[in-house]
Design brief:
The chain has two domains: 2-275, Rossmann fold (3-Layer(aba) Sandwich); 399-508, Tetratricopeptide repeat domain (Serine Threonine Protein Phosphatase 5, Tetratricopeptide repeat). Helix content is 41%, strand content 16%. It contains 19 helices and eleven strands. Strands 3-4-1-2-6-5-7-8-9-10-11 form an eleven-stranded mixed sheet, sandwiched between helices. Strand 8, helix 8 and strand 9 form a beta-alpha-beta unit. Helix 2 (86-92) packs across helix 3 (103-118), helix 6 (194-211) packs across helix 7 (230-240) and helix 15 runs parallel beside helix 17 (466-478). The radius of gyration is 28 Å and the shape is elongated.
């Protein structure tokens, strides 16, 4: 082991490379220096290690909560912090879900991981890639001010630093980027099923909570970038969390796991209303597509209530979206495009991601205008990418959107608006229980007029429900509308003669049943 550690150390030492890195950073960094901080923390609301080790069978010792290795890139003061290399990032992979206290054990894990990623490369290539300088300065002093937050969700079982180059570029442009590894529910690893994607969604939610602890983080401006598996988890997170303002998907699995989406039951097009940039790999041949991937089942084709920008990069296959992966590709693994063409493609990926985020998080009009340009007017190399855009078709037919529309147009329009929305989207429906609880919530808030309108809609939609008319009678009575209250209670009794509450209420109103 000592010889392996020495070999790895020699590979990473700066100034030792006899060859150049195969990755070339083309875009100049933004106006900010970049800091990097690594936090080893636990999400104590979730478990990770079981009572026994799944591989050795021995009792588990130490912390069993979920480890979340957290990388934070941020705008920093110049001339602070220490320089980093690609090798510094690579070593972090050895402790992605284990935080050993002893330096020797940490070094062993780091060396083993680096060897696993570089062992197939010629020694001079490995030296060049591991010693390649990066933008970030470790533990640099954070710049003053508030910056929008981006959560990065990696691909399947990938490390947090998978797209460190993109994270550094965005931090130089005035963003805080936070990432954690793609680890499964337990030590046994990530699974490509509903439990797996919900586990990564939980990590996104944990990092959003962590962002609120950072003094320079403007969590009112929040986006989530996801690559591959992370590009399904981030969309699921947005379906659950309305604080997410924008989504970037790097060849995301939201396109390729329709069965998992259907199993979730909550990831539906009406719950995705935030803008999305989807950067795709070159299309595969029809013969190569899985049987469940088609236009009819594509979630992207079903998105109607969000702005969607699709950029398809001709040189990229799926694996190219990890720039750290590109850095360590074997010499013969570049496919139809060489390393320089892939670097150019990555530069345009960075450009579109930055412009998209500037447009939607910073409200930059020039960035929004750039997103509308045809490819031929972007100064990109000809045929590098194709563009496809669709615009949101108004508000989604959801209860929350329905309530907002009633607040805008008046609750007395409830029946007419509901009918129009049902005509536009027959899948939109409000159950009697939904309407009843809504009406009583309004009554509790003193919004009697609104409560009457909602409970009247419930009775209209469910004319055979004695309870709907009983609730409507109560709302009318609270509004001082005696005659309609009597009529509603009598209708309730006609549907359910055993409704003792209606009999009592009619007596209070001074009439007989």
């Amino acid at each position: 082991m000592r010889s392996l550690l020495l070999s790895i150390a020699l590979l990473i030492m700066p100034g030792m490379a006899s060859a150049q890195s195969h990755f070339t950073r083309i875009n100049p960094p933004g106006p900010h220096a970049v800091g990097l901080r690594v936090v080893e923390q636990y999400d104590k609301s979730r478990g990770y290690r079981g009572a026994t080790d799944p591989f050795t069978g021995k009792p588990t010792e130490g912390e069993r909560a979920r480890p979340v290795q957290t990388l934070i890139w941020y705008p920093a003061d110049k001339a602070t912090g220490r320089a980093t290399s690609a090798g510094d990032y690579m070593r972090l992979g050895g402790t992605s879900d284990s935080f050993p206290a002893q330096a020797a054990e940490r070094a062993r894990l780091e060396a083993r991981y680096v060897q696993s990623r570089t062992g197939t490369l010629p020694p001079d290539r490995a030296k060049a890639e591991l010693s390649a300088p990066m933008l970030a300065k470790r533990d640099a002093t954070a710049s003053s001010g508030k910056f929008p937050v981006i959560i990065y969700a990696p691909s399947y079982r990938a490390p947090a630093f998978e797209n460190a180059d993109l994270a550094e570029f965005l931090a130089s442009q005035g963003y805080i980027v936070i990432a954690s590894p793609s680890t499964g529910q337990s030590m046994e690893g990530m699974n490509d099923d509903l439990e797996g994607v919900q586990t990564q969604m939980g990590d996104i939610q944990f990092l959003i909570g962590f962002a609120h602890l950072l003094p320079n983080a403007d969590t009112e401006r929040l986006a989530v970038i996801g690559y591959s598996w992370g590009g399904l988890a981030n969309v699921m997170a947005a379906a659950k969390d309305s604080r997410i303002d924008a989504l970037v998907s790097l060849d995301g699995s939201v396109r390729s796991y329709p069965d998992v989406i259907e199993q979730s039951r909550f990831l539906t097009p009406d719950r995705i209303t935030v803008p999305m940039l989807y950067v795709a790999a070159t299309p595969r041949h029809l013969e190569d597509l899985p049987s469940d991937m088609n236009a009819e089942r594509s979630f992207l084709n079903k998105m109607k209530y969000a702005d969607l920008y699709r950029v398809t990069l001709a040189p990229y296959v799926h694996s190219n979206f990890s720039v750290m992966g590109q850095r360590f590709l074997p010499d013969g693994a570049y496919g139809d495009y060489d390393k320089d063409e892939l670097s150019v493609a990555n530069a345009w990926l960075e450009t579109y991601v930055r412009r998209f985020l500037d447009g939607y998080l910073k409200d930059d009009a020039a960035a929004r205008a750039f997103l509308e340009l045809p490819a031929s007017q972007t100064e990109a190399p000809a045929h590098l990418f194709t563009l496809y855009r669709t615009k949101a078709q108004g508000a989604p037919p959801s209860r929350a959107a329905f309530a907002a529309e009633l607040a805008r147009r008046g609750f007395q329009q409830a029946s007419a608006i509901y009918g129009a929305w049902r005509k536009r989207d027959p899948g939109f429906a409000l159950s009697e229980r939904d309407l009843n609880s809504w009406g009583y919530a309004l009554l509790g808030d003193g919004e009697v007029e609104g409560a009457v309108a909602i409970l009247r809609l419930a009775a209209e939609l469910h004319p055979d429900s004695w309870n709907a008319f009983d609730s409507l009678g109560e709302a009318y009575a609270r509004a001082g509308m005696k005659a309609p209250a009597i009529e509603a209670y009598r209708k309730s009794l006609s549907l359910n003669p055993a409704n003792r509450g209606a009999i009592d209420q009619l007596a209070r109103l001074g009439v007989k049943p």
